[in-house]
Amino acid sequence: MIRKGEYTIYNGREYRFIESKSKGFIELISNNKEDMNYGFIHYKDNIYTKVIFLNEVEKLFLIHSFAKYKGELFGASNGGNGKILLSTPHLKLAERYGFKRTDKYLYSKNVNLDEVEIIEERKPFSLD
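-> structure tokens emitted (128 positions)
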């Protein structure tokens, strides 16, 4: 589905991560129980974590996802019931595609995944 936030590559696989309380470390986050075979510990529900040295990863990056819907780009996030939640602050776009006002300057619409093309923007990220 839609991915957003801080990611890294560790042992050839992509993981979300958070900064560790200890300097020079990060905490990897996985939703794959099989990662327990690689030193991850069960945190809660289907969340597994592993604290590693920062220098054990290839790179850090930030992912921000967009959705291309009917030729236009919109902000995207996971919606309810397996749908994609599109959003825009632009009134004319919102009116053209039947979005509803969900905040003072925000319009949103749930669509099926097969109606959009997901585009991930990756930017280098640093803990400095």
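The helical segments are 91-96.
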